[in-house]
Amino acid sequence: MEFHQLSLGQLQTNCYIVAHNNRALIFDPGEEADRVIHFLTQHNYTPIAILLTHGHFDHIGAVDQLRDYYQIPVSIHQLEANWLSDPHLNSSSIFPLGDVIIKPADQTIELGETEIEDFKFNVIHTPGHSPGGVSFIFDSEATIISGDCLFQSGIGRTDLVGGNQADLYDSIMKLYQLPDHYRVLSGHGPSTTIGYETQTNPFIRA
């Protein structure tokens, strides 16, 4: 399984393409749909689904273009199902980048062990940055797509709609239960590992 990172848009939000046998999952396509399409075409990947760690505008901006182009479903946690079409909830209304309004998701994300074709991963609820935040854990690859929950030497902000500092702490402690060598692919910035964060994160240590 291959993990590719594309940093998209003015906020440099990390979109992840997870590929296996020329099929691909798209995580958090925040902007620049044309760039994502170019990447997929260049690598001869056929995307089969779009999965969202949460519903903030900088993680969803290219959803409709990619969904329409590839005719693939979009999934988000049910607590944020109405965020895609609401600029207040997805926080685009408070940034000078224009309101982001996306069509409803095709389905809601089920927590627990999940299979989409040959892709197998575990979905856990990691609220705090937003109420419906989730992290995708690929145990076979020792890799986590954490959205804006945990960053290298940082944590998600909790001052936007639905943010909760205590919930974020609990969510990060869930991630800290994973083995030290697990790689963390964050919503912004470089990757890190569970071991590095439990020992050095200045905000929350194990």
Automatic annotation (TrEMBL):
GO MF annotation, one: hydrolase activity
Superkingdom of this protein's organism: Bacteria
Stretches assigned to coiled coil: none
Named cofactor requirement(s): Zn(2+)
Keyword Zinc: yes
Keyword Glycoprotein part of the UniProt annotation: no
InterPro entries per record: MBL_Glyoxalase_II (IPR051453), Metallo-B-lactamas (IPR001279), RibonucZ/Hydroxyglut_hydro (IPR036866)
Gene3D superfamilies assigned: Ribonuclease Z/Hydroxyacylglutathione hydrolase-like
Family matches, as SUPFAM superfamilies: Metallo-hydrolase/oxidoreductase (SSF56281)
Domain Metallo-beta-lactamase as annotated: residue spans: 12-188
Keywords: Hydrolase, Metal-binding, Zinc
Identification of the protein by name: Putative hydrolase
